[in-house]
Design brief:
The protein is of the alpha/beta class. Helices cover 32% and strands 26% of the residues. The strands form 2 sheets. The chain has a 6-stranded mixed beta sheet, with helices on both faces. It has a 4-stranded antiparallel beta sheet with strand order 2-1-4-5, covered by helices on one side. The longest helix has 16 residues. It is globular, with a radius of gyration of 17 Å. It starts with a strand and ends in a 5-residue tail after the last strand. It binds adenosine-5'-diphosphate (ADP) (2 copies). One adenosine-5'-diphosphate (ADP) binds next to helix 1. This is ATP-binding cassette domain-containing protein.
């Protein structure tokens, strides 16, 4: 689904990530961890082709990103849902309009099951609210709903619980686990080891760790 072969990334002359080879299989649940500044966000950007590898290859759905046109990359990205830590909503649009924005931008019609999606993330009562009226936890769940609006096969989340308390973090994790059980591939970048431990107690997860510019599979020593 997503595969890296000897992929490296440098900002200018500074090598940040080197010689990474691993793949994200359909239906899997991955965590990506490592200290702040290790390169988690950068690796996520490589995984959805916002950045291209300095060396080696990154393949999305079987195609190497550096052999694709911008249009092809934009098209493939619809199959990937992104949840950012800082959910950037347009403050003058309602939550429903914000969540549906990726469809609007792509010229697609609204989903018939939008109400179900809102109910699933627990935002039915906030459908008409404006973003500034929402709590941190509600914003994160809205960001998840927006990431799911085009029914992606993979969801990549960058520190999704970075700004919310533990109770809200657990709730968000529960949603991501449910989503994975319904077949969506999930990858969460986080430095929150408690979140990883909690997930491990419920489902089989693989933990990738960035250490010394390399990506390793972490064992059971979390
Ligand atoms: P993490 O998500 O693990 O905190 P990042 O991928 O955000 O790590 O950043 C890794 C390192 O790369 C940091 O030292 C950061 O300062 C640097 N970095 C990130 N973006 C850029 C950029 N656009 N130009 C140069 N250096 C960058
Ligand atoms: P439950 O019955 O436990 O509430 P469902 O399986 O009915 O869960 O899912 C509720 C709604 O969540 C779905 O109808 C759909 O709108 C949304 N949803 C769940 N998974 C996905 C997904 N992978 N992509 C897009 N939307 C999803």
């Amino acid at each position: 689904m997503i595969e890296l072969q000897a992929a490296s990334y440098s900002y200018g002359h500074t090598a940040l990530l080197s010689d990474m080879s691993f793949s994200i299989e359909p239906g899997s649940f991955h965590f990506l961890t490592g200290p702040s500044g290790a390169g988690k966000s950068t690796l996520l950007k490589l995984l959805y082709a916002e950045l291209l590898p300095s060396e080696g290859t990154v393949s999305l759905f079987g195609q190497s990103v550096d052999q694709m046109s911008r249009d092809q990359i934009a098209f493939l990205r619809r199959r990937i849902g992104l949840v950012h830590q800082n959910c950037d909503f347009l403050d003058h649009l309602s939550m429903t309009e914000n969540i549906c924005l990726p469809l609007t931008v792509a010229g697609q019609s609204a989903r018939d099951d939008l109400d179900q999606l809102l109910a699933w993330v627990g935002l039915t009562h906030r459908a008409d609210a404006l973003p500034p009226q929402l709590s941190g936890g509600e914003r994160q769940r809205a960001a998840l709903a927006r990431a799911l609006i085009q029914a992606p096969e993979v969801v990549l989340a960058d520190e999704p619980t970075g700004n919310i308390d533990w109770e809200m973090s657990q709730r968000l994790l529960t949603l991501l686990i449910e989503l994975n059980k319904m077949g969506t591939t999930v990858l969460i970048a986080t430095h929150d080891l408690n979140l990883i431990r909690l997930a491990k107690s419920e489902i089989a997860v693989r933990v990738l760790r960035i250490k010394d510019r390399q990506v390793q599979f972490a064992g059971s020593d979390l």
